[in-house]
Amino acid sequence: MYKHIFLTGPPGVGKTTLVRKACEALTRSGETLDGFYTEEVREGGRRVGFDVVTLSGKRGHLSRVGESSGHSSGRREYRVGQYVVDLPSFENLALPLFRNVGVAVGRGKRPVFVIDEIGKMELFSQSFVRAVRQALDGNGCSILGTIPIPKGKPLGLVEEVRSRRDVKVFTVTKDNRDVILQDVVAAVQECVK
């Protein structure tokens, strides 16, 4: 019996779009949802970074294209490729959501907690890693999340999620991304019963 549903697939394949469509369908069917997703930020057609957006509509920086900031005032700079991760912004927006996990339990069903995504940028936050583990191990919610496809050095928490017995992982491809939505929604509804 699965408790959590995760989507994986290559960057840009449509995992976040699928999560957002699943959230809409689950909300229409009366499920309680909370959490966040990441969204590309574009300027003049060029991707300049990512924002973290809560399901209630709050938005904050996750990362921006950046040169090394000279005014780092002794703070460590976290980078993924050309992106500088804004850890304080991410943690200020995402971490409070975990404190409410399972608080909104109603009608005997577990709420759905959305984590899009557990990736390199987010994993710089040890507080985030601890919060995700607690949410996975707790009984307060079922998680609908995304994880990157394995490439290069394995990411500890990602591999942990992938190998859990209570997690079902859907691989999203360009061929199935338009038809997999119903399967994902049905799997999440099965988890929250």
Can you give a write-up of this model?
With 193 residues, the chain is of the alpha/beta class. Helices cover 31% and strands 28% of the residues. The protein contains 5 helices and 9 strands; from the N terminus they run βαβββββαβαβαβα. The chain has helices at residues 15-28, 87-99, 126-137, 156-163, 181-192; strands at residues 4-9, 33-43, 46-54, 59-65, 78-80, 83-85, 112-115, 142-148, 167-171. Strands 5-6-4-3-2-7-8-1-9 form a 9-stranded mixed beta sheet, sandwiched between helices. The radius of gyration is 16 Å and the shape is globular.
Secondary structure blueprint with pairings:
Layout: E1 4-9, H1 15-28, E2 33-43, E3 46-54, E4 59-65, E5 78-80, E6 83-85, H2 87-99, E7 112-115, H3 126-137, E8 142-148, H4 156-163, E9 167-171, H5 181-192
Parallel strand pairs: 1-8, 1-9, 2-7, 7-8
Antiparallel strand pairs: 2-3, 3-4, 4-6, 5-6
Helix pairs in contact: 1-5, 2-3
